[in-house]
## 1
Amino acid sequence: MEFFKFQHLNEYPEKVIEEVITYDNLMRTRKLSIILFFLNFIYLFIDHLNRAKGLWIINDGYHYLFYSHIILSLVTLLYILVFKRIIVPSPNEITFSHKSYVILFSFFILSFTAVMSGWIDQKIHGQITVYIIGCMAIAVIFNYNFKVTALLYGSSCAALMIFLTISQNDPNIRQGNYINASLIVIISYFISTLLYKLKQQNLRHNYCLEDLVTERTKELQAANDSLSREISERKRAEIEMVKLDRLNLIGEMAASISHEVRNPMTTVKGFLQLLKKKQDPKDKEFFDLMIEELDRANSILSEFLSISSTKPTIFELHNLNDIVTATLPLIQADAQNNDTVLTVELNNVPDLQLDIQEIRQLLLNLVRNGFEAMPQGGQLKIRTFSSKSEVVLVVSDGGIGIEQCLLEKLGTPFFTTKEQGTGLGLAVCYGIASRHNGRISVETSPKGTTFYVYFELS
Ligand code: ADP
Ligand code: MG
């Protein structure tokens, strides 16, 4: 991994770096041309003073000095005008013509100062100051690669030497100037290439940093994501725990109370049946009603009781498909009454430690809810399948679905949206699933609901 990172950082395209450098050069050319253009007015003013003093007649060098200033004005003005047309918003739009255009400007400046020093300055002052300034300015302001730098300084130095030889009559001064010019060119070349290298390195370093920052940001993002996933997982587990706790508490209450309630209820029912025989036939229906209500209360109590394991769960090795098949006749009868099409898809699943009665109960409760969600009929599907680590029982209906805000209440005892509902069916299912070390998940939409019951393969 480290090896790759290293390679990746080093292989940053040289082309991009070159483009950035040229872009910077272009911007500087623009500024320098404007500065030189306005500076030229001062030179022209000095030329005017020289003329007034009569220097132009004494020394023809002053003529040439004036013409050279005119040339400088024209060239810088040309650059200013062209720059009005060239607009380069970013380095990656730099073209070859931009590059040539910038190099040409430096070439002009260097040649210009070479001619000034080698030819005109020899006539007036006998020095090479202008060339020194030109070389230093180009070396410091612009960054060119080694080849271009060599070409620029080489050509300007040659021009300087030629004009020196032509114009300087004093052999001592000429020789001194040869030496000075050579030194200047060498020093400028080194300064220029050194600055170019530094600039390159600086850019490379910046890109590396940018890369590193992006990479680190990505890593942080990933860590953050996994952390938030973990947190929501934990929250879900906590909610589940609270639900199970509640189930346990209710189960214990149910276990202790139901006994006390059921016994007197049985007694009352017995007496009601006795009394019913002795009463007028017209009152009989009241007794029937009372007995029916008692039966209903009793069945609610039974369901309530089965939330917790008051009777011990009997785990034996069974196949889930067998239990489903054995329960099918009951479900099919219900389906017919309900105008529902029942589809069953039982895939091969391995045997599991299951309590037959409880799994039947679980299946029936889920199926019953499915039927109740489709009062006008529809399709109900029971499916089993297994993955590497789990066996899954799926019950899906084409009913009305469950509102999102009610989802987390599912399985809470007595939570119901039905007029005649007890709100115990799902609580029982959750209890059974948890005793089987399994879990239940729900997918729902206005087109229907699917309950998944997962049993872990140990
Ligand atoms: P009950 O069926 O007595 O209302 P349950 O515990 O079985 O109690 O279900 C609780 C509630 O969950 C139901 O009242 C219903 O709102 C919702 N519900 C359960 N299963 C489904 C389903 N298949 N489709 C739509 N709603 C459902
Ligand atoms: Mg129900």
## 2
Amino acid sequence: MIPLNQHPSGRHFLQIPGPSPVPDRILRAISLPTIDHRGPEFGVLGRKVVAGLQQVFQTRHPVAIYPASGTGAWEAALVNTMSPGDAVLMVETGHFAALWQKMAVRLGLEPEFLALPGTCAETGLPNAWRHGVPAALIEARLRKDTAHRIQAVCVVHNETSTGVTSDIAAVRRAIDAARHPALLMVDTISGLASADFRHDAWGVDVTVSGSQKGLMLPPGISFNALSPKALARGRTARLPRAYWAWDEIVEMSAGGYWPYTPNTNLLYGLSEALDMILDQGLPAVFARHQRWAGAVRAAVQAWGLPVQCADPAVYSPVLTGVITPRGVDADAVRKLVHARFDLSLGTGLGKLKGRMFRIGHLGDCNDLTLMATLAGVEMGLKLSGVPLAGSGVARAMEVFAETPAA
Ligand code: PLP
């Protein structure tokens, strides 16, 4: 452990899947003097960030902004739409899906936790934690719910604990095919502004997201993008809510203000982040993440280690989970890499503790920061005695050289 007063030379490599590195441009914006959150300049800022977020969520409908981490926005999604004892269908895709399910229990809901059955023979890990949401299972479950007790289907778009994405349009089709009125609520806390996400086109009712991943901001702001159906449900839902209530936030933020003190300086940062992302254009942002992910996966495959996501159709563009051989504590590798090379990797969470680590490749990265990251991981694996089939660093260099950035 490095004492805080002995900062190592050079930049720390923050390659966890969020918080992601904050660009200097955003840090400078955040450092501007705080202004009156009821004054005229603030309204301009507030309206700008809401309009920019609508573009990033790909929605024409309201986006509520909370001065809270992503967990707060999870809670907002549930308390604004549900009544005590409501049944919700949630899908186990990893640690974050499990935490949202636990929250639903604490709020007095009755979540049913659907999961792909079985374990993977090669790794001994649950199949549900290596694949995306099984839309066919959702459809089958909803068809059985002829009394329409289930009030919402809740899924995670980019499961940060595994590096697996889910096909949200397919979940919408499953709900429609079953002719079921349940709301579709989606967590894209780590997917937004890195992986393609379309709130309106995919028929999502509530999208939950946060600041510290693809938006390249520090933690501390989170969002609910809403549909007209979700807003209507909000008027009849009976779970208690005050701070999270959509009605006042949506009404006031249309004019650029909030019912309470917003985190002004993070909103400066958000304004700057939106300029960066929208100036580049969403298609280019998504392509950049896909290209990085391809190079990182090529490195992992060259090492001869399994990628946590077992389905190539849903590899995450945001992070890659690397499974270590049985008997090798992935957390010990991660700690060694941090101690020796000042590089932070994501830990294995929940059922994956000690079995895998995660490499974040999101936000303010480039080819060379990722090459350095892969070099740190390769050295760490070798120092930990992991037998490698080949050099991932050499393979990633080839991929980057062969596929120039657009
Ligand atoms: N959902 C997902 C997919 C996440 O990745 C995270 C955090 O990493 C959360 C929810 C919880 O968000 P927070 O830690 O900002 O409260």
